[in-house]
Specification:
Helix content is 50%, strand content 19%. The chain is of the alpha+beta class and 735 residues long. The two termini are 36 Å apart.
């Protein structure tokens, strides 16, 4: 199974994106396809045994659009300058056309050879030629309109194409009748309607294009963060190369003022780096040998040599761009509702236009007036604003989230986050820094001293990925103790770890590991010591040699800096907070009390964490789970929204829906607030889109003609453009 995001050319409205999406999803070998109108992309998941990349391009072409290849996030050739020149040229031609066709109505002088009364043939042919130019200008609209009609997915372009060509063909017939000598047809020419409708739709799309590009700024800025060139050191000589030439393992050089070129590890030098683009933290971070560097960081003041580790698509920036693009290509449920409505809307509008045309003829009106009404209904009802209402707001909000260090993997999260009423936090590494230290060792061994016990436990813990292991690693480094060779290492999820040192088996873990191996703990002194350690906020590790408890080790953790404020604000927003941890209850309750969490569920294994989340959901709660470890992955997946801190394990981040790049838990509340504002904005957009169509279609039909209110195709084109602009400007307020 493969996934690709393609750049698509030729989409102009929600019905376009819907039509392409439906067509792609019908093809054998395509597992799922989601088309994004604003980003002009299609995210396709496909079976590579049945479909290849070339076939995907062919499918897109058959649907009436063009694939421009894989979307990379790099700004494609900017056509706005060309579009602007064409717009100016056709703006002048539009004025000329309107002057010739309508100038006499307001008393403006017309050249005699173009006078409709004295030279009707010259008048008609001139309008015909000018309109042909506009049809060429809008050929993409007409072509797409009829292609979608053929595929039984009529869209906005279909409405325009049918209306414009109907008006043009009837006017052409009238021109032929004039040439044949029937000058009465001079009043049945509607060339200007066809031309000006195309002009205003092109204007609307030109403005749309500029506005849509603004919504992509967050992604473009991320892409542009990494420099195009870098300096590598080969055999002691510095050489400038392009980013694409860097390979894993290369030694890359960074001078003061340079941007870091690729993700890597410092092997020489020290400096302060600005990583604010990623973390949001404006304060420079001190980096030394052994520390990681991220592509795009700015080297303030030092000389660094670092080994290239993650290049190209594997780099942090590329992964962020990929996540943001993929998120913008998923659809929130509210977007699917708008898409469904758009799918029914276009055929209904065509039907209304046809009924209006027939009704006008039956009521005794002329063909010209019936045709004008037909075209006006089609043009005024174009669902462009309806199509932009949701995706534009989603893309703007996702850009805002990315800029603030909140990586949202699916756009539906932006809809669902506003409903969260319960947040479940893991303790170690989430509410705390996970930077544990050994606070106390209680030795019950008759032949091993404290240092030897820590050397044995540290050697076994070195095989583990649990945050507690880091405390032992730091101890061994600090005391310059070598590690033993470990045999038969096993990780017992939620209990602890085991391993053999020089033939003896050691078991390390919480009290549940004793139960697991049937080890009795009847010593009251051990129980008393455990209680004392727990009351001081320690996580407790039992050290068992063979089947005998030889030590208790207390490991302490530090609470994250702003956790108290985060919990307080969440409580003020009526969001219940729960601590869910595999740690012992006494320790957990001590930390919970310190930070303001009242409900604690402790001593749980990963399976119990998942069951707890499921039970909360059964109670009707909307649950967000925030964690960082492998143990949290099933629970993160089970929650309505899974949030991982960036310092967490890869598997936890893969299981989550949201990644907090700065490890700042206050961003959870920001996510919820952004979600609320986004959905409010979408609802406003949909209201204006529906209100506009509900209001304008009856006026286009002519219901208000008795009181002197009516519109023609030109006014309809202007109104449609203004409708789209209203939605665009409202969505951009989220920025």
């Amino acid at each position: 199974m493969q996934k690709v995001v393609l750049k698509i050319s030729g989409m102009t409205c929600s019905a376009c994106s819907n039509g392409l999406e439906k067509y792609l999803n019908k093809q054998d070998g395509i597992i799922s396809a989601t088309v994004n109108l604003v980003m002009a992309t299609a995210q396709i998941e496909y079976d590579e045994t049945k479909v290849d990349r070339k076939m995907l391009d062919t499918f897109v072409k058959k649907a009436g659009f063009k694939s421009l290849g894989e979307y990379t996030g790099k700004e494609e050739e900017n056509n706005h300058k060309r579009d602007k020149i064409l717009f100016v040229i056709f703006g002048v031609l539009a004025v000329v056309l309107l002057y010739i066709s309508m100038g006499h109505m307001i008393g403006l002088p017309n050249p005699e050879f173009l006078n409709m009364s004295e030279n009707p043939i010259n008048y008609a042919v001139t309008l015909f030629v000018l309109t042909i130019l506009f049809l060429i200008y809008g050929f993409d609209i007409i072509k797409n309109g009829f292609k979608n009609l053929i595929h039984k997915d009529p869209n906005m372009d279909t409405l325009v194409a049918v209306g414009v060509l109907s008006s043009f063909l009837y006017s052409t017939y009238s021109m032929i009748m004039i040439i044949r000598g029937d000058n009465s047809y001079v009043h049945e020419l509607y060339f200007e309607s066809s031309a000006i409708v195309i002009f205003f739709i092109k204007l609307g799309r030109y403005l749309d294009g500029i506005s849509k590009d603004k919504t992509k700024e967050a992604i473009q800025k991320l892409v542009q963060i990494t420099p195009n060139k870098a300096i590598v050191k080969i055999d002691g000589v510095e050489k400038q190369v392009t980013i694409d030439e860097i390979k894993k393992g290369d030694t890359v050089v960074s001078h003061a003022g340079d941007r870091i070129s690729v993700d890597g590890k410092i092997i020489s030098g020290k400096a302060h780096l600005d990583e604010s683009f990623l973390t949001g933290e404006s304060k420079p971070v001190s980096k030394k040998v052994g520390d990681k560097v991220i592509a795009g960081s700015i080297n303030y003041d030092g000389y660094l040599e670092y080994e290239a580790e993650k290049i190209g698509r594997d780099s942090t920036i590329s992964q962020i761009v990929k996540l943001v693009v993929e998120a913008s290509n998923t659809k929130a449920p509210i977007a699917r509702v708008a898409d469904k409505v758009s799918g029914y809307f276009v055929p209904i509008v065509i039907l209304i236009a046809i009924i209006s045309f027939i009704a006008y003829l039956l009521l005794g009106f002329g063909v010209g007036e019936a045709l004008t009404t037909f075209v006006t209904v089609l043009v005024v009802a174009c669902p462009c604003s309806l199509g932009l209402a949701t995706p534009l707001a989603i893309v703007v909000s996702e850009g805002k989230c990315a800029k603030n260090g909140i990586l949202v993997k699916k756009s539906e999260i932006l809809e669902n986050a506003r409903n969260i009423d319960t947040i479940v936090f893991d303790k170690t590494g989430t509410l705390t820094y996970g930077k544990l230290k050994i606070s106390k060792v209680v030795n019950y061994s008759s032949n091993l001293d404290e240092e030897e016990i820590l050397r044995i436990t540290g050697s076994i813990e070195a095989k583990s990925t649990h945050p507690i292991a880091k405390a032992f690693e730091e101890y061994l480094k600090e005391h310059k103790l070598g590690k033993y060779n470990i045999e038969d290492f096993k990780n017992l999820s939620g209990l602890g770890i085991t391993g053999k040192v020089e033939g003896k088996e050691y078991k390390l873990g919480n009290y549940k590991i004793l139960e697991h191996f049937g080890i009795e703990n009847n010593d009251e002194k051990i129980k008393e010591e455990e209680s004392k350690l727990a009351k001081k906020g320690n996580s407790i590790i039992y050290v068992v040699e063979e089947n005998k408890i030889i030590a208790l080790i207390g490991v302490n953790d530090l609470v994250r800096e702003n956790v108290k404020d985060v919990i307080k604000k969440l409580n003020e927003n009526n969001i219940e907070t729960i601590m869910l941890t595999g740690d012992n209850e006494e320790t957990a309750k001590l930390i919970a009390k310190e930070i303001g969490i009242t409900k604690v569920i402790a001593d749980v294994v990963p399976e119990e964490k998942t069951n707890t989340i499921k039970e909360l959901k059964k109670q009707g709660k909307k649950v967000l789970m925030c964690g960082d470890g492998i143990n949290d992955s099933p629970a993160l997946t089970s929650a309505d929204i899974g949030v991982s801190v960036n310092s967490g394990t890869d598997i936890a981040m893969d299981s989550s829906d949201v990644i907090l790049m700065k490890n700042d838990l206050s961003k959870i509340l920001d996510l919820i607030l952004i979600s609320k504002k986004t959905i409010r904005n979408i609802k406003q957009n949909l209201f204006w889109a529906f209100f506009y169509n509900s209001l304008m279609i009856p006026i286009a039909i002519g219901i208000l003609k008795p009181i002197g209110i009516s519109i023609n195709p030109m006014i309809a084109g202007i109104a449609m453009t203004l409708s789209s602009l209203t939605v665009i400007l409202n969505a951009l307020r989220l920025r």
